[in-house]
Design brief:
single chain, 328 residues, alpha/beta, five-stranded antiparallel sheet, 9 helices, 12 strands, 33% helix, globular
Length: 328
């Protein structure tokens, strides 16, 4: 599927085709001709410019989002943009506290939300009818409870922090998380270390009307090279597999511990307690003479070597440009 339907402008469609085909130099020339490339002195200036652009768009009634490769950049843009939204009247009414949690193994963070706030849902939930990566606008904010309207539809939902915490502010997002997003205007923050051919394609194809591509003066000369970089797809697969293994192992350990706690409180095994006749040693797993008696209760799993989880937001996705076209 080669037809580009999201972008309204012919030059923008050609630019997206160039990025998809790996012709980064041609794409950069087209971005230059449209005035999309913006140079800044520092990374902090890039973040502030992206935040400023997003809030200006929202004040014009346009849907907008900032995009970055690193989670730290996204958080900085979100903080800056929300401060502007509050000071310039985009947000209405007082802030209400809502406990957020980006993933099951992430720490919980209380964040302020108010009517007018931009929100992204980060986990699929069939009961609520929400999907990972969808964007919303808060219409009513109460402590631990938000009513939100989905972008480009009249659908409204109410979420309670007791049952759904997987949200964050959506003035900015990682490129990876924004794969299914479409907005009127998008503003990309370049990262020399995170940008590659696939992320450049995704980041520069989220808009319908226009975009900006923000970089430092030091990064400007290397844009085409960064956008041409091809990542090792195996490494992305490894990150995803490690994430899945970590979740599975954690779930198994939690179930085993719950089963033990339900039978008897955990306690040390008495040294003189003989092996129970009705609980024979497994034939294929004999007790080794040199193996000391385990201190945990019977039936409890031995603690496994934990798998180091990958940061799903900063890991390199196994990008496939043809796959992204399904989101158009």
């Amino acid at each position: 599927m080669n037809e580009i339907r999201r972008q309204k402008d012919a030059t923008d469609r050609a630019m997206v085709h160039d990025l998809k085909a790996g012709r980064a130099s041609d794409a950069v020339e087209k971005m230059d001709s449209k005035g999309y490339i913006k140079e800044h002195a520092t990374t902090q200036d890039v973040q502030k410019a992206v935040a400023r652009n997003v809030i200006d768009d929202l004040k014009e009634g346009k849907s907008s989002i900032g995009l970055a490769g690193k989670r730290a950049d996204v958080d900085a843009i979100n903080r800056e943009a929300r401060a502007l939204a509050r000071s310039e009247g985009v947000l209405k009414g007082p802030d209400a506290s809502f406990t957020t949690q980006r993933s099951a193994d992430a720490r919980e963070i209380e964040k302020p939300f108010a009517a007018g706030d931009r929100v992204m849902t980060l986990k699929n939930d069939r009961d609520l009818g929400v999907k990972n990566g969808q964007t919303w606008t808060v219409e009513r904010a109460e402590a631990g409870r938000l009513t939100m309207k989905q972008d480009a539809s009249d659908r409204r939902i109410t979420i309670d922090q007791s049952s759904y915490k997987a949200i964050d502010h959506a003035y900015s997002s990682t490129v990876h998380k924004a794969q299914g997003v479409t907005v009127d205007r998008a503003h990309v923050a370049h990262s020399t270390t995170m940008t590659d051919r696939s992320s450049a394609y995704v980041g520069c194809s989220r808009h319908r009307e226009s975009m900006t591509y923000n970089c430092t003066a030091d990064q400007r000369g290397g844009l085409a090279a960064d956008m041409s970089r091809v990542r090792d797809k195996d490494s992305a697969t490894d990150y995803q597999r490690a994430d899945a293994i970590t979740r599975d192992v954690s779930a198994e350990i939690a179930r085993a511990r719950s089963a033990v706690d339900a039978v008897a409180p955990p306690g040390p095994q008495r040294e003189h307690e003989p092996q129970r006749e009705h609980e024979p040693q497994r034939e294929h797993e004999p007790q080794r003479e040199h193996e000391p008696q385990r201190e945990h209760g019977p039936g409890q799993e031995r603690e496994r070597e934990p798998v180091q989880p990958a940061d799903s937001d900063q890991s390199r996705a196994d990008y496939n440009p043809d796959f992204y076209d399904r989101y158009r």
